[in-house]
Write a structure and sequence with these properties.
Elements lengths: L29 E6 L6 E2 L8 E5 L5 E5 L5 E5 L7 E6 L18 E9 L6 E7 L11 E6 L5 E8 L2 E9 L6 E7 L4 E6 L2 E7 L9 E7 L7 E12 L5
Parallel strand pairs: 2-3
Antiparallel strand pairs: 1-16, 3-6, 4-5, 5-16, 6-15, 7-12, 7-16, 8-9, 8-15, 9-10, 10-11, 12-13, 13-14
Length: about 240
């Protein structure tokens, strides 16, 4: 039985270049980042030393790896209306690391898988945003955003607090959803839900500043709220690609 149509591997580069004989795709073609949440560490304040910077309203607002198949990050708020759990990638530095910039003409990808126990419960953000201790209203970024008390998930493309907001999905209680976007380097960002293209957003308000991987929730009432994040993936074609 044939196990592969490409027994010698498949590549995305010419035979003559350094990785022309490499049996897999050339990973240096893109800058990529992926977190499957098999490990997790977070600190509050500017002490550094962790993967994520955690901003929490109370001690009972937590982020932790759950005992579950596949690597799951569980965000849990306490009972106060304004309880929050916000995370920005800091890469073991004292402050968030803004390692992503949207560049006109350069393809870029983002994908995450997540769910909320109550779809119309807490507000949620997942995407790329400028450093912000309360990122639900981040002034610059490209991120999926759901308002408190609503089940509607949208993609927000925002620069200097001027946003283009495109509806992506009506979330369902306790149901995992794949959310993704792809910028092909032209004039729009394609939005995907569970691997189906559902909309296209213009880049009129695309940010030009550096952005950090960002996620979090904010409670909407006096009931504990939870969100589960399975993974987050980001990639951008290198400008130096040849």
């Amino acid at each position: 039985m044939t196990t592969s149509n490409f027994p010698n591997g498949a590549t995305n580069v010419a035979d003559s270049v350094s990785l022309g004989s490499y049996v897999a795709q050339d990973p240096t073609k893109v800058h990529s980042w992926f977190d499957d949440f098999d490990t997790f560490s977070a600190t509050t304040g500017t002490t550094g030393g962790s993967e994520w910077l955690l901003t929490a309203a109370a001690a009972a607002d937590t982020a932790a790896i759950e005992d579950a198949d596949g690597g799951i990050l569980l965000l849990t708020t306490d009972t106060a209306t304004a309880d929050t759990v916000y995370l920005q990638w800091e890469g073991f530095q004292p402050t968030p690391v803004e390692s992503w910039t949207f560049t006109t003409g350069t393809p870029m990808w983002f994908k995450c898988r997540l769910k909320l126990a109550v779809a119309a419960g807490a507000a949620l953000i997942c995407g790329l945003a400028v450093t912000d201790s309360s990122p639900l209203d981040a002034s610059d970024g490209i991120y999926f955003l759901k308002a408190a008390g609503s089940a509607t998930m949208s993609l927000v493309v925002i620069a200097s607090s001027t946003a283009t907001t495109t509806t992506a999905k009506t979330m369902v209680d306790d149901t995992y959803t794949n959310l993704a976007w792809y910028y092909d380097g032209t004039d729009g960002i394609d939005i995907f839900v569970d691997e189906v293209k559902v909309a296209r957003s213009v880049i009129t308000n695309a940010p030009s500043t550096e952005l950090a991987v960002t996620l979090g929730i904010k409670n909407n009432n006096a009931t504990p709220r939870t969100a589960r994040i399975d993974y987050i993936f980001v990639a951008k074609r290198r400008d130096t690609d040849i």
